[in-house]
Amino acid sequence: MYVAVKGGETAIAHSLDLVADKRRGDRSIAELSLEQIDQQLGLAVDRVMTEGSCYDRSLAALAIKQARGDLIEAIFLLRAYRTTLPRFGDSLPLDTSAMAAERRISSTFKDVPGGQVLGPTYDYTHRLLDFSLAAEGDRPAAPTAPADTNRTLPRVGDILEREGMLEPPPHDGASEDLTRQPLTLPASRPVRLQNLARGDEGFLLALGYSTQRGYGNNHPFVGEIRYGQVPVSFVPEELGFAIEIAEIDVTECDMVNQFSGSHDVPPQFTRGYGLAFGHSERKAMAMALVDRALRAEELSEAATSPAQDEEFVLAHSDNVEASGFVQHLKLPHYVDFQSELVVVRALRAEVEARNRQAALDQAAE
Amino acid sequence: MTNGAYNYAYLDEQTKRMIRRAILKAVAVPGYQVPFGGREMPLPYGWGTGGIQVTAAIIGHDDTLKVIDQGADDTTNAVSIRRFFAKVAGVATTTRTEEATVIQTRHRVPETPLREGQILVFQVPIPEPLRMLEPRETETRTLHALSEYGVMQVSLYESIARHGRISKGYNYPVMVNGRYIMSPSPIPKFDNPKLDRSPALQLYGAGREKRIYAVPPYTPVKSLDFDDHPFEIETWEQCCELCGSKESFLDEMIVDDDGKRLFVCSDTDYCERRRTLPEAAE
Asked: How many C-beta atoms lie closer than 10 Å to residue A277's C-beta?
C-alpha cells in the first residue's frame, strides 16, 4: 500500500535527529565553538548579520553553526529570531565620518584628507593556497599604526559636494521598516536601501555586474569605501537626549556616477550608496551600484534594464523568500498535478479522436 | 521546548492585532487582497507562512485545529505545521473535519461539507490571480481597482481557441461577490464549487507576498467561464480503491514498475470515515 507520505510524524523526528548528527560530524574531531566561528570565520558572520539584519556576532555565529555553514539557512535562522524581538525605537542615523576606520580607500583621488588606508584586504593577496594554514601554529600579530581617534574622517563625497560637482544626498524622507510594513510600490529610497541592505549578496552582485556590462550603465567610480567602527546613538524617550548604546563595524561605499544633467540640473555626478554590517565590501559595492541604477526614473533616465526595474529588483532580492519559495517545490503537489493529468489526458484524447476521425474521412474518400 | 520564550501562538500580541485588522478588512471587502506586515516565521516562505500567521492570529485555547496538505492530515508539511501549533499554542488538534474549528489547508477543501462557525485557512503562494498575465503589482492593483478583467477573459478564451476547452486544472480563477477576481489558491477546480456560499469563513494568507484576503460565509463565488463553455470539474472513471467513493477527488499512484495505477481519495479523513463508519458511506 502507499506509504511514501504516511507516518510523517516519525519520519520527521528521525530526520531532525539525522540533521543534528550530521551537524556534529565525526565525534573524534573537536567541536566548533561560537568564539571560533566569530573570530576565524568572521566574514561569514558579517554576511549573516547583514542579510539577517541583526547585529549580534554570537547569535550569527550560532546560526552558522546550526546551519552547518549554509549561510542562507543561517540568515533565515537569525531573521526568524529577530522577528520576535521587541522594538524600542530608531537609533539616530550613523555618522560614518566619526568612524574609527580600519580601511579607507578612494579610487577617484590619489590622495584624500585622512589618507588612503589599505587595512585588511584580500585585494592584493595572490590567490595561492597557503598550505601553511593547513598546519596549526601561532601567527605573529600584524604591526598596526596607532589609530588617530581625535580626528574625524571627512567623506570624499562631501568634499566633491561642496564644489557642486556631486549632487547632495537625495532627500530621503522618513524611514520606514520593511520588516513591519509590507513593501508598497513605488518604494521610497529608504525602503529601497533597507531592501538592498537585507538583499542577497549574490543577487545584487549579479545585478550590479549587469549594469557594468551595459544593462543600465551609469559609469561608476568608487568615491570611497570605508570600514571600521561607528558609535550607535539612541534617544530614549524618558531621557530626551542621545546616549551611545553600541559600537558596530560597518562597511560603507559611496559610488560616484556620471550624470549628464537634465532640464533643471547642470551636469554633475550622482550617488549610489551601500552599507553593510561588518567587513562586506563586495556587498556594499554591489548595493551602491544597484541603488544608483534604481534611481533611473528619479534622474529622468530611460529605465530599460533589469537592475533599473524597481519592482523586479525589490521583489526578488530577499534570499530567505527566494530560498523558501524555490524549495517549496519539494512539497507534495500531487493534487495539482492530478488536475493537470486529468486536463492533459482529456486534451490528448480529443486530439487522438480528431486524428482518428481524419484518418477515417481520408480512407472514405 | 519554547520555555515561555515565545508568546502564545508564537506571534506577539501587537502583530496579532495587526493581522486581525487586516483580516477584518478582508472580510469587509470580499476577495480584495489586503497588504499586511507579514512577519518572518520560523518556517520557510512558500511552506505556509501566510496561513500560519492567519491561524496564529485567530486561534485561541478553545479551538480545535486540523491541518491538511493535499487533503491529507499526515503529509509531512501538515504534520510539521500541526506540531508547530501544538507546541506554541498548546491547542487541541484533530484530523476530523467536523470536529475542527480552524482548518488550515494547502491545495484542498475538505470533502466533508463545512458548517457555520468553522474557519478554513488557506495557504496561498501567489495571491494575485492576474500575476501570470501581468507580473507587475503596480499594474494588477490598478486592474483590480478598475475591475478591468478583460485580460483574464482573453486568456481563458485563448485557452479555448487553442485547446477547445479551458485548460486550467487548479488555481482556477473565481469572481467573488461579483466584484473581485480572486485566486482560490492552488486547489483543484474540483473544489471551486465548495467555495460558493460556504457556511464557513474562508481566510487566505500569503506570507511571502504579504497579502490576506477573505470570503465571508454565504458569499457567492463563481468560477469564471463562458455561456457556451460552462465551468466543469474533474471526473474519474475509477472510484476510490479504499472506500469506493465516486464523489471525491482522487489521487493517482503508480504502484509497480509496469506503471499500474491506483486511485484513492485525496481527503484522508473523508476516506477513513467512510471505511470505519459504513453509514457515512451511504
From this structure: 26
Phi, psi (deg, nearest 5) at residue B254: -100, 120
Q: Are the Cβ atoms of B44 and A323 closer than 8 angstroms?
A: yes
Q: Report the distance separating Cα B227 and Cα B233, nearest Å.
A: 16
Cβ(B204)–Cβ(B212) under 8 Å?
A: yes
To the nearest whole angstrom, how far is the Cα of A328 from the nearest Cα of chain B?
Answer: 5
Q: Is B117 among the residues known to form the active site?
A: no
Of B18, B110, B6, residue with least CA distance to A81: B6
CB contact residues (below 8 A), chain A span 107-146, against chain B: none
> What is the value of ipTM here, to two decimals?
0.87
Contacts of B228 (CB under 8 A, 6+ apart): none
> What is the amino acid identity at position A356?
R
Query: Does residue B31 have an active-site annotation?
Result: yes
Q: How far apart are CA A140 and CA A64, in angstroms?
A: 28
Q: Is B139 part of the contact surface with chain A (CB cutoff 8 Å)?
A: no
The amino acid sitting at A13 is A
| Beta strands per DSSP E along chain B | 34-35, 64-69, 92-93, 102-106, 119-123, 174-176, 180-182, 201-206, 211-215, 221-223, 250-254, 261-265
pLDDT in tens, chain A (365 residues): 333 445 678 888 899 999 999 999 999 999 999 999 999 999 999 999 999 999 999 999 999 999 999 999 999 999 999 998 888 889 999 999 999 999 999 999 888 888 899 999 999 999 999 998 998 888 889 888 776 666 778 888 888 888 888 988 877 677 789 999 999 999 999 999 999 999 999 999 999 999 999 998 888 999 999 999 999 999 999 999 999 999 999 999 999 998 777 777 788 899 999 999 999 999 999 999 999 999 998 888 889 999 999 999 999 999 999 999 999 999 989 898 998 898 899 889 988 999 999 999 998 87
Range 234-263 of B in CB contact (< 8 A) with A: 234, 236, 249-253, 255, 262
Q: Would an 8 Å CB–CB cutoff place B231 in contact with chain A? A: no
Which residues of chain A make contact with B275, given a CB cutoff of 8 A? none
Q: Is B265 annotated in the active site? A: yes
Number of other CB atoms surrounding residue B81 within 10 Å = 24
Which residues on A lie below 8 Å from B255 (Cβ)?
2
Contact A339 B169 (CB under 8 A): yes
* Total residue count of chain B as it appears in this document: 282
> Rounded to 5 degrees, what are φ and ψ at A40?
-105, -15
- Is B208 close to A325, i.e. CB distance below 8 A? yes
- Residue A5 and residue B76: Cβ atoms within 8 Å? yes
B239 is catalytic: no
Rounded to a whole number, what is the largest CA-CA distance in chain B? 61
| pTM (predicted TM-score) | 0.91
| Domains of chain A, residue spans | 10-82, 96-119+151-317
Pick the CATH number of B13-128+170-222 from 3.40.50.11310, 3.30.365.10, 3.30.70.270, 2.50.20.20: 3.40.50.11310
CB contact under 8 A, A342 and B169: yes
Among A192, A222, A202, smallest CA distance to A293 is for A192
Q: Which of A2, A7, A80 sits opposite B264 (nearest CB)?
A: A2
